[in-house]
Amino acid sequence: MSDADKLPKPANLPRRLAALFYDSLLLLAIWFIATAILLPLTDGAAIHAGNPLFSTYLLFISFFFYGWFWTHGGQTLGMRAWRLQLDNLRPGPITWMQALLRFMVAIPAGLLLGTGYLWMLVDKQKLTWHDRYSETCIVQLKENPGKRVR
Hints:
A two-stranded antiparallel ribbon has the order 1-2. The radius of gyration is 18 Å and the shape is elongated. α2 (13-38) packs across α3 and α3 (52-71) crosses α5. It has one domain (10-140). It has helices at 3-6, 13-38, 52-71, 77-81, 96-111, 115-118, 129-134; strands at residues 84-88, 136-140. It is mainly alpha-helical.
């Protein structure tokens, strides 16, 4: 068996998008809680949609949500459900700098009609823009042979 056969295979696009969808539901709930925490500061008044401080606040919360999971085991809850894991292409665990780079590049990768995600369909190593830039890769975990699936 060669070294290439031992490496986990990069996750396919539908699995990545499914995990992202799961995580977005959880993140939405966290945004609701984060917004509720701010309500006493506004005397219960609604926060205007275009408020740059509020948008920045939610962006920071989003980064810490993903960054914490990525730097602590490489799996968000959605990634666990779909048996995916973020691996470092360099030796060692995922760093906060890699998490920041990945997060910041993933935003335009998704907003540009998903071009950064679709890039993996033509990339030789099946990497997205944010995979390449952060030197990380989402891989498909193998099934645990000792565990029975019901």
